[in-house]
Design goal:
This protein is α/β, with parallel strands linked by helices. It contains 13 helices and 15 strands. The protein has two domains: 266 residues, 4-Layer Sandwich (Metallo-beta-lactamase, Chain A); 68 residues, no CATH class. Strand 8 and strand 9 form a beta hairpin. Helix 1 crosses helix 2. The chain starts with a helix and ends with a strand.
Length: 391
């Protein structure tokens, strides 16, 4: 998206808000503050245009987008444990179950039950925690494999997140050959998006196959999370990434957003890849910082091919519990102005949102509804998407 194009679109948006039926309805519902229209009143920000280099292509394999299997079970647990602002380590969910019941747990008591088994006996550890935890069968997880082809043809692999359930994630890793890739040290780093249970608590599954893998975490991890990496048997480097843009290899960078998140979690790390002759690819675990901020940050901070926001993949955090709110329609509408060429959504995007993307005519890449993913409207477990490459 060029700067001139952005100015034109914002002007058109404002004109529509002031004079059009859609704009009038939106203003009447109080949605103006959620939209990019409000930014018209802000001073123009000069683009930094940091050069992160280019890569030839990016391929993403969805190992698991199913964080949990039943929304009602998860929300019932959260409500019963005290709500969304309660420390996640007290819920008594696996793997930190201590038998005390919902909302009465602690990291220290829970990890003491299984620490001696990590990381090389995750099956046995999960069997122990199943007997002591609340609703262990509802745990799933989010993780994906990112394969970057450099301009010289060299291919490099990164793992984004490690899910939640040891049992489920080990099954997913074996299904896609991640276990062997880790054993062979083909995957050079584990990038943790944020400290949430469904992205981070399955980390021993990664470490059982490669306990030395370099692990990148966003600044803001709590003491329990930092200790869990150690207690999981990790023997490699842990690199804490500060907020802002952090280049990894030519054409690939992470970006840490300093945002407070539910369940007493802080900070989220996302990924940007600049694909030669195509544009910028944005990859996210949960996008708690919002799709507008994600896209605007890329536009404001990074120099990329053709000035084109080429693709996006991951959870976009719009109605993850299918509880549609009118303000989400504004997010769906505003996404169109960024002109993404490929949209690979899943996880916390929500099925209703994915369907609205399709109805809006956005270039959503559909999935196959395999391995307990529910519908083909988005990329499910085992599905792949390519940027600069056909898969």
């Amino acid at each position: 998206m060029s700067e001139d194009k952005a100015k034109i679109n914002r002007r058109d948006f404002l004109k529509g808000a002031a004079t059009g039926v859609l704009g009038g309805a939106a203003l009447g519902m109080g949605l103006f503050s959620y939209s990019p229209w409000s930014k018209t009143y802000f001073p123009q920000i000069k683009r930094k245009l940091v050069d992160i280099g280019t890569c030839k292509s990016v391929k993403v394999t969805n190992l698991s987008e199913t964080s949990w299997f039943e929304n009602s079970v998860l929300m019932g647990d959260i409500k019963g444990a005290g709500g969304l602002l309660v420390n996640q380590y007290t819920y008594n969910w696996p793997p930190f179950g201590d038998g005390a019941g919902l909302g009465k747990g602690s990291y220290e008591k829970g990890i003491a039950k299984i620490k001696h088994l990590l990381p090389h006996a995750v099956d046995e550890a999960w069997a122990v925690t199943e007997a002591l935890s609340v609703n262990p069968g509802n745990a799933g997880g989010f993780a994906c494999l990112i394969e970057v082809e450099e301009l010289n043809g060299n291919k490099r692999k990164f793992l984004l997140d490690s899910g939640w359930s040891y049992k489920w994630m080990d099954e997913c890793f074996k299904r896609e050959g991640i276990d062997e890739m880790l054993r062979n040290r083909e995957i050079e780093a584990l990038i943790i998006s944020h400290e949430h249970f469904d992205h981070f608590w399955g980390v021993p599954v990664t470490y059982q196959y490669d306990p030395t893998i370099t692990t990148y975490i966003p600044e803001g991890f709590y003491p329990e999370g930092l200790q869990y990496i150690k207690d999981s048997g990790h023997q490699g480097k842990v690199i804490t990434i500060k907020p802002g843009l952090n280049p990894l290899i030519p054409g690939l960078s992470t970006y840490v957003f300093a945002v407070p998140i539910i369940c007493r979690v802080y900070g989220e790390q996302a990924i940007f890849a600049n694909v030669k002759d195509h544009g910028l690819v944005s990859i996210t675990g949960c996008c708690h910082f919002g799709i507008i901020q994600f896209s605007e940050t890329a536009f404001r901070e990074i120099q990329y091919e053709k000035d084109q926001l080429y693709g996006i993949y991951g959870g976009l955090h719009i109605s993850p519990f299918e509880d549609w709110d009118p303000k989400y329609d504004d997010l769906v509408l505003s996404l169109g102005k960024y002109d993404f060429q490929k949209i690979g959504c899943n996880h916390c995007t929500g099925l209703l949102c994915a369907k609205k993307f399709v109805d809006a005519g956005y270039p959503v890449v559909r999935g196959t509804a395999q391995y307990r993913s529910r519908e083909t409207v988005y990329l499910g477990n085992g599905d792949r998407i390519g940027f600069g490459i056909e898969v």
